[in-house]
Amino acid sequence: MKHKHIILIDDNKIDCFIHKKIISLANPKTQITVFHDAIAALNYFNQNKYNTKIMPVDLILLDINMPLMNGFDFLERLSKIKSLFNPQIPIYFLTSSCLKSDVEKALNTKYCSGYINKPLTKEKLNEITQPIDKSMTYNFKKLIACM
Amino acid sequence: MKTVKTWCNKNEKQLIKALESSSIILMLDTNGKISYSNKIFHSLSGFDQNYLNKKSLFSLCKKNKLEKIISQFNNRETNTAIWNENVCLKTSENNDLYVKLSIIPIKNKKNIIKKYTVIGNDITKQKKRELKYKKLKTDFYNIFNNANDAIFIFDKENDSIIDLNEKAYTSFGYTKDELQTTSFFNLISKNNLLNSKYKLDTLLENENIIFEAELLNKDNHITDVEISCKQFKHENKNIFQAIVRDISERKKTHQKLKEKTLELETFLYRAGHDLKAPLTTLEGLLNLLLLENLNKNAREVCNMIESTLRNGKILIENLTTASHMLDKPKRKEKTNLREIINQTLINLKHNEGFNNIDFKLNIPNKVCIYTNPLLLISIFQNLIQNAIKYQRPKTKSHKPSINIDVTEVDNNVNIIVIDNGIGIKKEEIDNIFNLYYRSTTAVDGSGLGLYITKNAIELLNGIITVSSELNRKTQFNITIPKNPNK
Question: What is the ipTM of this complex?
């Protein structure tokens, strides 16, 4: 399955540039929407609650450490926008943090599908699209990190 | 009848002779003036007959005793029985002469006392010994009482305090009477009571023990103390002596130090992770650059940037591992060693030279250590990483290998890691566990790896030793208790 619309939420503009590049290289047709802070992303979801015209989102890549609102808070707020929020959308944390506390928290977060360490590479992107291996621990979530 | 009288006379004389040669004999008039004194008294006092004649016995007494004796002497007018008196006299050389005197009143026919016969013995030596002993006793009691630590002497069978010094009651707001004969354990806070009782119950004779506890003050405040306790036999009873020292200041400093250390560790840990972010960004950019059409020179530079980045990341990772190590033993789980070692090998798969190595693992399936798996991973990661890094190049006759043997012995797990790599020089082997020690600059490293390993093993109450033969092998022997932080 190829992703058609991916949302990137990361305050680091250079990282966004890298990730956009990697996604485009893998699939040039993918639409990528970038937000440099979580609040702007939240507004986007809120405003488009009932908007059927925008392309459905099929992957969210979310940084953890961001000013104003961090990735965990964002996810919690997003889950409250029920009418729009489709729990089927895979949401991955994409972060440079190797803090065990971050990893554990992420993997215990309800709508989080996995945890990836930056930088995003073609291989890591590929792994996201692979079907989940049921033999893996961590509540069937993907951990693509250098632990 | 006559023979009896002669016998008496004869014996009386012998008796007097015996008395004369061994005892002081004095005759006093009713005012205490000496009318007769014998040779023994002369030699003891240093005064001769002439000097003593008509001199009052009181004038020879030490001043402080004088009044008492005079008053007793005067009161004796009505009481005519023999009485004894210990007095201290001054000799001609102004030394103390202690004598025990028996004073015998001699009465006339009308039953009026006319004079006194005094028979006495020199008890100076005995008295001096007594005084010395008394002084020693008060000296020791003074030392005991003025000690800067609280001292309790208690009998555990009767569960009561026998004696205590001033510090023991004043420091904790009590009076001496309030504590004497109460139980020593009344003073110990509930939090430590069972533990303290157990410690003293298991204490053998002449054994001592030092432990920390909370002591209850009279106003219910708690003072942190260190109790140094010893059991000994005294008058056939088992007696405990507890020296109790206030350590609240030390505790406070200790707590502060702990907080500061944690702060520093957290800072280091966070700083390490924050530094990682720009490195990952650079890594991402480099990945993009490598996708471009680069010429040979540019590609070479890119490769060097890549290896520099990798080193930077390892350095930061080691730094953060070292910093938050103290937090790790707190989280414990049953950790299977075989799984941990396999996991570590997977983590190291991408290391340069990994594929050259012939791994021989001999790890029984069920060996577990009850601890935080991250600690074990960091131990094996560093050891195996080193073995990979310091391998000798593969030749026809040499195949680099790493052997890992795990065995269980009683409550311990023994782990042996052997490689056939370049080995460690004799003069360097003592330093390899030191912080920032690096034996070579030929291979990249941070100087933290083995320091972290040793720290992690120490946190698990384990031991690591190393032996090596240059250009042949290096062997690490590790022993870790199965349940390290019991």
Answer: 0.80
Cβ atoms of residues B286 and B302 within 8 Å: yes
Residues in B closer than 8 angstroms to A100, CB to CB, are 374
Q: Sheet containing B150-155: which strands, arranged edge to edge?
A: B160-164, B150-155, B237-246, B222-234, B208-216
Contacts of A14 in chain B (CB under 8 A): 281, 284-285
Please, is A119 exposed, middle or buried when counting C-beta atoms within 10 Å of its C-beta (0-12, 13-18, 19+)? buried
Q: Choosing among B273, B280, B317, B348, which should be mutated to test the A contact, i.e. which has the most A CBs within 10 A?
A: B280
Do the Cβ atoms of A93 and A71 come closer than 8 Å? yes
Q: pLDDT-based confidence at B70, cuts 50/70/90? A: low
Which contacts qualify for B90-97: CB closer than 8 Å, 24 or more apart?
B90/B60, B90/B61, B90/B62, B91/B44, B91/B45, B91/B46, B91/B47, B92/B45, B92/B46, B92/B47, B93/B46, B96/B62, B96/B124, B96/B128, B97/B44, B97/B45, B97/B122, B97/B124
Q: Do A98 and B276 touch (CB under 8 A)?
A: yes
Contacts of B269 in chain A (CB under 8 A): 99
Q: What is the pLDDT of residues A112-138, one digit of tens each?
A: 888 898 889 888 888 887 665 544 433
Binding-face residues of A in 96-115 toward B, CB within 8 A: 96-100
Q: CB distance from A19 to chain B under 8 Å? A: yes
Please judge whether A119 and B281 are an interchain contact, meaning their C-beta atoms are less than 8 angstroms apart: yes
